[in-house]
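Subgroup meeting minutes
Present: P.N., E.W., G.H.
Scribe: E.W.

1. P.N. recapped why we're keeping a running log of single-chain structure predictions: easier to compare across weeks, and new members can see raw inputs and outputs side by side.
2. G.H. added today's entry (362 aa).
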Amino acid sequence: MPDTIAPSPQFRVIDTGLRTGRENIAFDQAMIDAHRCGEIPDTIRFIHFKPVALLGRHQALSQEVHQDECAARGIEIGRRITGGGAIYLDEGQLGWALVMRRKTLGLGGLGETATAICEAAAVGLSGLGINARFRPRNDIEVGGRKISGTGGFFDGDTLIYQGTVLVDLNSERMFAALNVAKAKLERKSLDSAADRVTCLRALLGDQTPTMPALEEALISGFARHLGIQPIWGEATNTEEQRAKTLYEEEIGTDGFVAEIDDPARETGVLAGSYTNLGGTVNAFVRLEGARNERLREVLISGDFFVTPPRIIYDLEASLRRVPIVELQVHIQHFFERTNVGMLSVAPDDFALAIINACAVKK
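Output recorded in log:
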């Protein structure tokens, strides 16, 4: 008998309309929870934002966002459930997210999956008449300038991977809202953050696509490169109710956004960092013992991607009372016995950030 060809995986496609940043993040988490419970199928979601500065899951609020400027300009501040750096979003950007089973695409870990999805998005964008290319670890670029940033993580058997496309760019509002670190610009050999980004309007002028046309271009890229069958549908009442609860109880609250603020200002806290080509890990440390030889408390922040994100809290808890001399071995063993995926950092990066913090003790 001839071999049978497996049908292409089907993906529901939804557009959830214009929402605030915190509302959109709550809907992200609602989709993850609903997917894990088997309430929704694999899905492509398109996302539209009111003006918002969004922190990465592990970033410190005071270090990444100009809060006074955001308040003066009516820009909301929110915190994502994915890692990475702070971003500014408004009606000039289109967000997209894929929520699916770990095995749907038949790929390996987070790095391989991220590459495939980013290449698919680049294929879709290139169909608009630009030469979009994936640049590891998680950017899509045109002519060396970023047009889309992405990130994601596994939660059990469910993957969320998402990105944004810069359609039109208000760079003045973006850089007023965000604190773009000098070290980050130096690492990329740039004099200004504006030199790092571009948008469809700058590239295509009057030929810039409408949002529906851009959505169809991305759908085409996902379908062709990932071998899936996208089918338009609607958000469910279950998702909306889950999102409403998450917004009211956690993600929409100021407490969630300020969960990591500026630990270095607290008495007795030592601060250090370690930067590689993929990002920065920051460590805030309190020591104990007669010679300050043990870790009393550690808080880790930064623009890195780790899956699942909550593993960082487990790492912080495991470091209590660990002697500094045993730190690197302890962290290595922690990650060896933990099912974790990392796009941009390695276990030693966390150890080196903490060691650098401890080195400044008096």
